[in-house]
Design a protein that fits this description.
Layout lengths: L2 H6 L77 E5 L2 E5 L5 H7 L23 E4 L6 E2 L10 E3 L3 H15 L16 H10 L17 E3 L2 E3 L9 H10 L4 E4 L6 E4 L11 H6 L5 E3 L12 E6 L8 E7 L2 E7 L12 H4 L14 E3 L3 E3 L1 H15 L3 E4 L6 H14 L2 E3 L26 H6 L7 H10 L4 E4 L11 H4 L4 E6 L11 E4 L8 E4 L4 E5 L12 H11 L9 H11 L8 H4 L4 E2 L13
Bound molecules: iron/sulfur cluster (SF4) (2 copies) and FE2/S2 (inorganic) cluster.
Length: 609
């Protein structure tokens, strides 16, 4: 099969258009606002330390990429017409950028993606693939767009015949020894090589398949499968290992067309960020063991969300099909997680579709009941107990859930707290110097902002023991799992718990209410930086499971104290009206990457800042 035939069977790459949704698995083009200004991200400044040395993790920030080669020298440019702004022309359009912006970044700002392999917005520039060559007037030779800074009055052509010819020949060169794997390669549909061949190549191969240099295939590296034959030697994986995790697992070995990517003695990847290697690899050379051969990516839809795995709140895509989540991928947010996420978080999707989910309400003495009937029972108990009630919120809940839960407690004058196991103590503690935090809850900060650390857990447990608490409502099963709470809980006549998964401790509750999980609801989490970020519903909840705020609103309705909101969006509007720091916020204002709240010194210490 010729290369042309092979590529002809592959899906056509979408034209670069930042207004269109990024296809699942594709590296989303950097948006204008996300492109770091000069000195703020790649292309990077000259190194503070020795070139090539791995940076040490500092204070938990995602390590900043170190410097790369100096940018290409351009002819002397006239002084900028506007101070602090460089004005230039790319493909006939005027573009205004911050000084230090490279041609590839400037093009992205105007919605144009210059073909590339080795450039990555969150890795140091290496300039090795030559795929991004562009023509610049008054410069004798074509220049690489990823490492050429735009200067005042520069005139760039990315689609001229000279540039297009360079793209074609670079692709032809890369494909000379590339295997004809597309029909069986799991990267198909999100492969840069395939997409760019369709967009810029479409050449006939000059060599026969049997003449290609063979390299190693299906090398098991633990969480990652390596197929060295598909590698385009872009060095993204090497730079990720060197500059993000500091583990230096990968290196090129051999020379010439026998060069190939490898780990030392084929040792497996053992760190907690292996999944990012599959993400940064532009081709199918590094694939995720977990996702490989499970689903063709063109069948997947994506929802923007936030990882619930810890208080960092990494932005993610939830890739799903027919109501089932198949994988999580990092979604770029330069203020939180750049382009990365950890493997602990990546596995969070597995909790959604397992058969231990609570899909129906039930009473301890009556088995499964409709949710409305269970809420009737809970409301009756609450109405009877009034102020002799206690509420324990969960930092796994959204802000909307917390707000409605607090309104329920306030309507009765009951006690409320959330600090089971004191998650607030670990809120900002980095576990690994990169992203993962010791507080494995996504919304401890939201609990603090909503003032839910109010009554004290000891006071609630004392009330339970003394008989002061006649009805206890739990937003999650955390308190039921606390061994030291067991005796106090056994004295409470009525316990109701909102639960997502079956756990043995639920037997202690008189009523179990089925709660929807994070990927099944609209809402917001507030991360350790006090950044409020939206999560979006990707899949339906099982059975009768409902958002926690809806169940609290149902109880308020039955207690004749309606919440006054019929959607998560409306609950958030009420919340924003009630909290000074949230004033003026709404779902639209939060945008794709969230908003940092004022007034907390910790919020200034964003990772990577
Ligand atoms: S394995 Fe992938 S990321 Fe690494 S050098 Fe090869 S193509 Fe680039
Ligand atoms: S660091 Fe935390 S929020 Fe980020 S992916 Fe890992 S578990 Fe999820
Ligand atoms: S993307 Fe510019 S040289 Fe590789």
């Amino acid at each position: 099969m010729s290369d042309e035939k092979k590529a002809g069977e592959a899906p056509k790459a979408a034209p670069a258009d930042p207004t269109k949704a990024t296809p699942p698995g594709a590296q989303p083009p950097a948006k204008a606002a996300e492109i770091p200004p000069a000195g703020g991200g790649p292309p990077v400044q000259q190194p503070a330390g020795a070139p090539g040395s791995a940076p040490k993790s500092q204070g938990g920030a995602v390590p900043e990429p170190p410097a790369a080669k100096p940018p290409a020298a351009a002819p002397p440019a006239p002084a900028p017409a506007k101070p602090g702004v460089v004005t230039a022309t790319i493909d006939g359009k005027t573009v205004e950028v911050a000084p230090g912006t490279t041609v590839i970044q400037a093009a992205l700002q105007m919605g144009k993606e210059i073909p590339h392999f080795c450039w990555h917005p969150d890795l140091p520039v290496d300039g090795n693939c030559r795929m991004c060559l562009v023509e610049i007037e008054k410069m004798g030779k074509l220049q690489i767009a990823c490492n050429t800074q735009l200067t005042e009055g520069m005139v760039v052509h990315t689609e001229s015949e000279k540039a297009a010819q360079a793209h074609r020949t670079t692709l032809e060169f890369l494909l000379v020894n590339h295997p004809i794997d597309c029909p069986v390669c799991d990267q198909a549909g999100e492969c840069y090589l395939q997409d760019q061949y369709m967009e810029h190549g479409l050449h006939d191969s000059k060599i026969e398949p049997e003449e290609k240099v063979r390299k190693r295939k299906v090398v098991d590296l633990g969480p990652i499968m390596l197929d060295a034959e598909r590698c385009v030697l872009c060095s993204r994986c090497i730079r990720f290992e060197r500059f993000v995790t500091g583990t230096d697992s990968f290196e090129f070995k051999n020379r010439g067309d026998h060069t190939q990517i490898a780990t030392f003695e084929d040792r497996p990847i053992t760190h907690n960020y292996a999944g990012n290697l599959a993400d940064v690899c532009p081709v199918g050379a590094l694939l995720s063991h977990d996702f490989r051969f499970k689903m063709r990516v063109w069948f997947l839809e994506s929802a923007d969300s936030v990882c619930p795995g810890c208080s960092t709140g990494c932005n993610v895509f939830v890739d799903h099909r027919d109501g089932e989540v198949h994988r999580l991928r990092p979604r770029r947010n330069v203020e939180v997680n750049k382009s990365w996420m950890c493997d602990v978080g990546r596995k969070e999707y597995k909790e959604i579709a397992i058969d231990r989910r609570v899909g129906a309400a039930r009473k301890r003495d009556g088995g499964a009941v409709p949710l409305s009937q269970a809420l009737d029972e809970v409301a009756t108990r609450l109405a009877a107990a009034r102020a002799a009630t206690a509420f324990v919120a969960s930092p796994q809940s959204t802000n909307e859930d917390l707000y409605a839960f607090r309104a329920l407690a306030d309507s009765l004058g009951g006690m409320i707290d959330f600090r089971v196991g004191s998650p607030e103590r670990n809120l900002r503690t980095l576990e690994d110097g990169i992203l993962l935090r010791a507080d494995r809850n996504p919304n401890t900060q939201g609990c603090l902002d909503l003032g839910l650390g109010r009554s004290g857990l000891d006071a609630i447990l004392a009330g339970c023991s003394s008989g002061k608490v006649q009805a206890l409502i739990l937003q999650g099963p955390e308190l039921l799992r606390l061994p030291e709470a067991a005796a106090a809980l056994s004295s409470v006549p009525f316990i109701a718990v909102m639960a997502t998964h079956e756990v043995p401790e639920l037997e202690r509750a008189q009523v179990v209410l089925p709660a929807a999980m994070w990927a099944e609801v609209e809402g917001t989490f507030t991360n350790y930086q006090r950044r409020v970020q939206r999560i979006r519903r990707a899949v339906p909840a099982p059975g009768d499971a409902a958002p926690r705020w809806e169940m609290a609103a149902g109880l308020l309705e039955r207690l004749h104290a309606p919440l006054g909101a019929a959607s998560a969006r409306e609950v958030f509007a009420l919340l924003a009206q009630s909290l000074k720091d949230h004033a003026g916020l709404n779902y639209k204002a939060l945008g794709a990457t969230g908003r940092a709240l004022p007034g907390n010194g910790a919020s200034a210490a964003a990772p990577g800042a």
